[in-house]
């Protein structure tokens, strides 16, 4: 089971929907204000407001209680709607507790009259989050299936943000119950529907969910076929793009494309938000293994990152064993942390490192000795095969052929003769290392430029003097109104 950790979209503000602080506000009142934001975004077709409502809901989820959710469903959905009847049954009843008393804003009362699809989908999302947090997985699966069936009949851009969250929780609740294989066909159908509806956020979310679904069952070939044939689009969510890079790095690693895998994994760890510590830990674990497979030794600072030292300790000891080329130490570390490596799904990759450990030890031997017998090489490498001398000879021959060591093999006398080490600056190695660093810096600069965000059509629409005066007047009135509210609270 892939061990990456889901990421929060952002640090959601803890203040109310209005900018004025309201510490004594009830959870139900907060939900109603979030619904008013969704209504305003739906009527004005502003997806930004829908995204803000989702962030506020994530910040509020720890305070959700059954009575608040039930009261909000009664408030937001018409009494005759099928959604209300379906969702009310899933929310558990609480006895012995009084419901929070609130005074809803007059504008929020319009929600019942409109019956907007966005409000209905938000109710599905709210109930699904509440059920998952309370570990009621059977009811959550029922709610998720009902929400997906409702989404199939909608094609509105303002629903896309809510739909992408529902897709994620739909897959997550099936992953918790170990039934991911059952929803693969549904996810493929949803991805096809999102492509036809030009829902790019839904496309990238569903593509990541499908890749995660395939990797959960080690179906790397199917995952690569889907990834290579999926429609190309510009990434809209940084979190989804990071997940895509992580899954791509895992696929590339299994397919022995270590250079591309290293670039994808490091980019995913770099782009991930600082709050997504678990995700960044997983990226660093896989990146460390890939760098070791490439013959590189990660810097010590990689293992000493804030909040990651304890989680990366097994990989630090593994790196130390590879660095010194001690095969016996490598075996002991692999056995000591076998459960950790199995949970991270890196155990098969660590088996591949055995050859790198032997090659590193052989390189150290070739530097230390100008001539050494194959029997001594087998003894120093601690080869435990039936014919260690023959194995040492084949290992040395392969290392010489691959260019790992600069030596010759004397078969008649059973020796390995190392050549004198020349000046490394007379070779092309410094230039190659310098070019790789330049390419890395240029790639980081290009990614930073692509990540810049500008308001839509900012190069076409310019604010006139009259519109500017109206906007400034509205801002002044809003500031005055907020100041009056602050005085009243005080």
UniProtKB/TrEMBL annotation:
SMART domains, alphabetized: PAM, PINT
Annotated spans, Disordered: 1-23, 455-490
Cited Gene3D superfamilies: 1.25.40.570
Comp. bias regions, Basic and acidic residues: 458-483
PROSITE patterns assigned to the protein according to its UniProt record, in alphabetical order: PCI (PS50250)
Membrane-spanning parts: none
Keywords noted in UniProt: Proteasome
Name of one Pfam family that matches: TPR_PSMD3_N
Taxonomy, superkingdom: Eukaryota
InterPro entries: CSN3, PCI_dom, PSMD3_C, TPR_PSMD3_N, WH_DNA-bd_sf
Limits of the PCI domain: 242-423
GO cellular component: proteasome complex
UniProt family annotation: Belongs to the proteasome subunit S3 family.
Protein purpose: Acts as a regulatory subunit of the 26 proteasome which is involved in the ATP-dependent degradation of ubiquitinated proteins.
Name of the protein described by the UniProt record: PCI domain-containing protein
Native species: Urochloa decumbens
């Amino acid at each position: 089971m892939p061990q990456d950790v889901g990421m929060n979209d952002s640090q959601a503000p803890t203040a109310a929907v209005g900018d004025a602080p309201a510490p004594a506000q009830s959870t139900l009142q907060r939900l109603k204000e979030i619904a008013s934001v969704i209504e305003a975004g739906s009527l004005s077709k502003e997806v930004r407001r829908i995204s803000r409502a989702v962030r506020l809901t994530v910040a509020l989820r720890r305070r959700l209680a059954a009575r608040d959710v039930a009261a909000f469903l009664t408030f937001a959905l018409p009494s005759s709607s099928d959604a209300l009847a379906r969702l009310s049954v899933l929310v558990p009843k609480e006895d012995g507790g009084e419901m929070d008393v609130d005074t809803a804003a007059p504008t929020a009362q319009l929600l019942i009259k409109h019956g907007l699809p966005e409000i209905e989908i938000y109710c599905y999302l709210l109930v699904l989050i509440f059920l998952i947090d309370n570990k009621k997985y059977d009811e959550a699966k029922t709610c998720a299936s009902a929400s997906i069936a409702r989404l199939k009949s909608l094609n509105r851009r303002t629903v896309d943000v809510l739909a992408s969250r529902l897709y994620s929780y739909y897959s997550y609740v099936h992953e918790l119950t170990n039934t991911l294989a059952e929803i693969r066909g549904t996810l493929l159908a949803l991805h096809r529907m999102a492509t036809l509806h030009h829902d790019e956020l839904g496309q990238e979310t569903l593509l990541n969910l499908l890749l995660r679904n395939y990797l959960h069952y080690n179906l790397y070939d199917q995952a690569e076929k889907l990834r290579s044939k999926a429609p190309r689009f510009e990434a809209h969510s940084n979190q989804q793009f990071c997940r895509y890079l992580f899954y791509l790095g895992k696929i590339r690693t299994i397919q022995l494309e270590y250079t591309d895998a290293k670039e994808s994994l490091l980019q995913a760890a770099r782009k991930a938000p600082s709050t997504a510590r678990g995700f960044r830990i997983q990226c660093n674990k896989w990146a460390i293994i890939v760098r070791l497979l490439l013959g590189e030794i990660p810097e010590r600072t990689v293992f000493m990152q804030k909040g990651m030292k304890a989680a990366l300790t097994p990989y630090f000891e593994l790196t130390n064993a590879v660095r010194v080329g001690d095969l016996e130490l490598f075996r002991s570390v692999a056995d000591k942390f076998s459960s950790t490596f199995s949970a991270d799904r890196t155990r098969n990759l660590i088996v591949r490192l055995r050859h790198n450990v032997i090659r590193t030890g052989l390189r150290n031997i070739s530097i230390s000795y100008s001539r050494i017998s194959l029997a001594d090489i087998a003894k120093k490498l601690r080869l435990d095969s039936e014919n260690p001398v023959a194995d040492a000879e084949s290992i040395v021959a392969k290392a010489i052929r691959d260019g790992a060591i600069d030596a010759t093999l004397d078969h008649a006398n059973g020796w390995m003769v190392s050549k004198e080490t020349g000046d490394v600056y007379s070779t092309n190695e410094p230039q190659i290392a310098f070019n790789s660093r330049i390419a890395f810096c240029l790639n980081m600069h290009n990614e930073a430029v692509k990540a810049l965000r500008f308001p839509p059509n900012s190069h076409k629409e310019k604010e006139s003097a009259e519109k500017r005066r109206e906007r400034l007047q509205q801002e002044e009135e809003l500031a005055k109104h907020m100041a009056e509210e602050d005085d009243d609270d005080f």
